[in-house]
Amino acid sequence: MKPSNTLCMLLALLLAVGAVRAIVVQLEVLVLTAPGFSGIGFMTEVMRGYGVPFTVVPVSPSASLDLTDLLWAPDGSARFAGLVMYPNLEATGYLTQAQVEVLWDFQRQTGARSVKFGAWPTNVGLDPDTLSCGSSEVPMTFTPDAPIGASGVNPAANLSSVGLWRCPGKAAPLTTCSMWASDFADAGLHPACTPTPILQFAPQQPDAAPQVAGALIKYQDGRESLAFVFDCSSYSTTCLLLGHMSLGWMLQGLVPGERRALLTVQLDDFLLATYFDSQSPAGNETSYRTTLSDLNAHMTWQQDLKTRLPDGSDFRLELPLNGGGVIGAKAGAAPQPVGNALNVDDRSCIDMPAYKDLGCYCWNVGTLACPADAPEWCRNCTKTAVNFSSQWQDPDFQLADPIATALKNNEGGIADAFFFSHHTFTHENLDNATSFDADKQLSLNVDMAAFLGLSNRSTFSSNCMVTPQISGLHNGDALAALASQGVGCAVGDDTWSFLGNPVNPHQMLYTTVEEHGYDGFQILPRFATEIYYNCSTASQNLELYNSLYRSFYGRDSTIDELMQREAERVVREGLLALRHDPHMMHQANLAILDGSGKSLAMHWVEAVVAEFAKYALWPLTSLKLDDLRALFLARQARDECALSYAIEVGTNGTVTAVTVKSSADPDGDAQCFAPLIAGGASSVTIPMAKGGSARVEVPGLSWYSPSSTA
């Protein structure tokens, strides 16, 4: 007997209800790529910045890959919440039809979304415009359908496509996402799909329709993908920005990690005078020492800048100080010399004439120690001893320095308007300094900071410092002397790879006895800039810049071009990569001398802020050096906790709970703190014991999967 239509409908309904089940999904991203393919680096860079767990699996067409074991845990939970494919392995012969079906079934059951870069238009439901293939610059913009979500990406951003090879899609979409590869090269796979353009190229002809650069694809079986028809790389600001948007969309707003954009600018040598190159004075000025009027101008500018930044921003400059500059100002203003003159040779050994004359190679930073048969000077690099006056510690000492007076009295809130840290007393290079010299250089600066009333202020850093010329970091005696006074951290220089953590750029480097002569001193990464230490005007900086880069660019650059290149570099390598390294400048860059009303530091910061605002709407903040150190230590602790996140998804798509586990070994009372960006701009931090786990209920969260809507 043939069953009735009603019975068939009831049977279908029961089967559908039976297919709907609660699931557990680990908030981890699976990156499927080709062996040896480096193009995926931009995406892993973004995820590493957040601290998102991810696994990279290179897939070879000739190797058998058991996707079922890869995708599903033995307890039936889903190992991944999102998939990234670059190249688009589904359509390029890396996966068999059976493997593709396993992948698609996983997405149907779990709601795991996929993101594809370098996709051929036909494979993602777009009609390729093969006459427009290329890599020349064609601007791209988001459409109103772009899944910006809580990513903080600026929906009005204009994105560059220069250097990114692509074949754009035509404006009219297709109805299938067809692909032919591997063992389905002849018959192909033709899933029904609906692509919605989310990123488009500017029209190349008058009255022409925009071409499609990226699309959100919804398949008839409920799967969802985000696809881009161009190649990507870490050198592209565009790709990094799309990495942020794609990550938030792929994980449905539940991002295991945190996002902070830090812009901290440190102007070394504060309180000292800087002499200009003799061939490049600033008008009649042959040197510059920060003036009180210039500091006040920067205070006013900082307050104005904060009003123009996104909510939650807090920007201020940091001034690593050399207290000996106060004595220099006193001596220069007095009719008679004040005490004994300061007499310290602050050059690096490698800058001294004898270094070249004797053929030394012992004190290049990062090199091995001298052999025993090297000339004595090469081995010892004798430096002039320190003479100093202690009269400034006397209560009757009278300040003749307007800046020191203003700081001591906190005139106009000046001591609270900037961050301050140590840069030694006289700026003596510490590469071959004795323990005595290193100890005196710091202890005298500590005394001066206390004398000026800075030490106890919340704006002052006492535990991490800037050494002169980034010196002493391979001098165990100097490091031991600094550490004995509570300074266990100093900034490095990212242009020297041996001063950075080779495994994780979001962590500090720790010194070792073998390499540095001292164990456990922390080196905090810091970016160099193209704003030079002995320049106070645009013309001075340009003269040096062009002498370095004229042959590279084939002509002289303008100051606007210099600042734009710097801004693009900082946004690309720092802010969008979620790097927290501060940026190096010097006190001479605070001068307001050229009639523009702005210092080089102001110009640089304004350029960076303007460039960043083109792409992201995130708050920009600055941290003092001790707080930066604490932030790096917190990131290190989080990484060492080896955190994994999982969500429990009910049959109606509601996230009922989030569980975080630490795979690290228990360590007494040590705690782990797991940040989670949860369903929007809000975030939560889940505490647990190291090696333990925690389950929390976070209301208002949901997770789409085709099975939950069946």
TrEMBL record:
Entry superkingdom: Eukaryota
Domain Agd3 CBM87: 26-249
Keyword Secreted attributed: no
Keywords associated with the record: Signal
GO molecular function list: structural constituent of cell wall
Residue ranges annotated for the Agd3 deacetylase domain, each copy included: 263-643
Coiled coil: none
Signal peptide boundaries: 1-22
Transmembrane residue ranges: none
InterPro entries listed in its UniProt record: Agd3_CE (IPR056826), CBM87_Agd3 (IPR056827), Yeast_SRP1/TIP1_CWP (IPR050788)
Protein name: NodB homology domain-containing protein
Organism whose genome encodes this protein: Monoraphidium neglectum
